[in-house]
């Protein structure tokens, strides 16, 4: 007796020479398709002609054929034997075997193609890496160019604001100019962050460590937002603890940027109610104080998932936020980096349709009261050295920058020469002795860097004259490059009048007035 498992995978039958099935000998495979007295060609049309050509008394193997039985497809092998009377046909179901063979062949082919694809991908990745490296270089050049191009008009905005503020103004205009200047400074920082985000991510952010007033910062935020806030259904509330120290050491612009971002966001997402900004002490020692700034709104709020993602770059909590409220979703990501750089922490609590609170905790050093020193009067004297009669050459192709520089230096009663490009500056340097030369880096015809490479020409008349770079490109790499070219210092655009004059005074002090001038 043939086991059922085997019985189901074959069928043995006989036919006459014309292909009519004469007998089913054994097996049950596709039995419904092979019926005695019916033609085998109905199920196996490929045997037509083959049976006639079979040699007598010799086995014949036919492999890899296909039949259909009850709408199922089978792969089969056939063993044929033709004698003097009939033809014996043994049909084996090889579907599973051919399936595995097919899979193996397919796998082998897949492996071959994967290997070939990997080799092609490696070549492609190498090309992409080179393209990415080039793109990064192009990005750096683009950022450097845009940094200069954007900071130049910012320099004009801040410069003219400072010039106007020095004039006689009524109280209302004075407040407007102060707010304009404050907004301009914040804009400069925001532009810097957008252009130099990769620098911030690389941990190259440099914070200023100077005396600042937290009360003044909160007051500036209040003035800024009260003038631009238009929704009368939202009240702006600012409160500070009476125990806040008068002065701490920190970065005034960065602190104001953090608060401005949080307050601006709170206002954007609050249709009615109030936005409350507060500052108070959490921890205080003899030398340090930890302050917590809280910005709370009664706006739409966030769910737990949104709170977890709110500090991610390019994050918008709703799809239309970018179009309705503007921005690229960088604000809170930058705020978190700034707070972290100050060794602080930021957290958020929120409830849908009830509001959101941001908490920023930052440690500050207290102002150190130095004892009087004999050196102090000398430093103070140097800080107030008059520049009257000093010969200064300024090369800058921007007319508005020229106007600002002329306004600053003419008030100091210097002998000022202004030119519009490097070639004109070089022509002046060849013939006239200057006590200080200020060169814009990006100028037509000849840049400031190109001019500094003309050392042989410069040395003829102005060998010991200090040169200052006027530029918006002030990364560590830029400053190092300018120093290697021979610049004595850098005046970063945009600059304040005080910073501008101090840079000139400091370089003159350091150079000990080499051209035998006296102050």
TrEMBL record:
Where is each Response regulatory domain found? 391-508
The enzyme's main class, written as a single word, is: transferase
Q: Histidine kinase domain: which residues?
A: 145-366
Q: What is its EC number?
A: 2.7.13.3
Superkingdom classification of source: Bacteria
Q: Which CDD domains match?
A: HATPase_EvgS-ArcB-TorS-like, HisKA, REC_hyHK_CKI1_RcsC-like
Positions carrying 4-aspartylphosphate are: 440
Q: Which reaction does it catalyse?
A: ATP + protein L-histidine = ADP + protein N-phospho-L-histidine
What name is this protein filed under?
histidine kinase
Organism, scientific name = Polaribacter atrinae
Cited SUPFAM superfamilies? ATPase domain of HSP90 chaperone/DNA topoisomerase II/histidine kinase, CheY-like, Homodimeric domain of signal transducing histidine kinase
Gene Ontology MF term list: phosphorelay sensor kinase activity
Print the keywords alphabetically. Answer: Kinase, Phosphoprotein, Transferase
Stored Pfam families: HATPase_c, HisKA, Response_reg
Q: Which InterPro entries match?
A: CheY-like_superfamily, HATPase_C_sf, HATPase_dom, His_kinase_dom, HisK_dim/P_dom, HisK_dim/P_sf, Sig_transdc_His_kin-like_C, Sig_transdc_resp-reg_receiver
- Look up keyword Protein biosynthesis and say if it applies: no
